[in-house]
Design brief:
There is one protein chain. The chain is α/β, with parallel strands linked by helices and 117 residues long. The chain has a single domain, classed as STAS domain (Transcription Regulator spoIIAA). The protein contains 4 helices and 5 strands. It has helices at 22-36, 56-69, 83-92, 108-116, and strands at residues 2-8, 11-20, 42-54, 73-79, 99-103. Helix 1 links the parallel strand 2 (11-20) and strand 3. Helix 1 (22-36) runs parallel beside helix 2. The protein is globular. The termini are far apart. It comes from Jejudonia soesokkakensis. This is STAS/SEC14 domain-containing protein. InterPro entries: SpoIIAA-like, SpoIIAA-like_sf, STAS_dom_sf.
């Protein structure tokens, strides 16, 4: 489950909670693709808002999506206290043409300022 919000015309954010499975990831990707219909490149803000679990197919699906559309992201902010997600983000950054930055939950405002600037 997730909630989405917009920072600016080309920046979208998601608060993600609950169980992250393929269905949840597909829904998130549909919203991102809708934004990409209007802009060549977008900024993406992803915040862990009490995620309970991830499924392996969801993680693979997300990675494949970023590989396919990685050149369409200008900035990605990942906000979580889970160090393994930060590590995954750092690895994914290799495949993106934009910049991915990891932030702890306590740095939420810093992440929002960075993604919207």
């Amino acid at each position: 489950m997730h909630s989405s919000f917009t920072f600016s015309k080309d920046t979208v954010g998601f608060l993600i909670d609950g169980n992250v499975n393929e269905k949840a990831i597909n829904k998130l990707q549909i919203e991102i693709l809708e934004k990409l219909k209007s802009f060549d490149k977008i900024n993406l803000y992803l915040e862990d808002s009490n995620i309970e679990s991830f499924t392996l197919p969801a993680i693979v699906n997300q990675l494949m999506f970023k590989l396919e559309h990685g050149d369409r992201f200008r900035k990605i902010a990942i906000v979580t206290d889970r160090k393994w997600i930060h590590m995954c983000g750092s690895i994914e950054n290799i495949f993106l043409s934009g910049t991915l930055k990891n932030f702890d939950i306590s740095e939420r405002l810093k992440a929002m300022n960075w993604i919207s600037s």
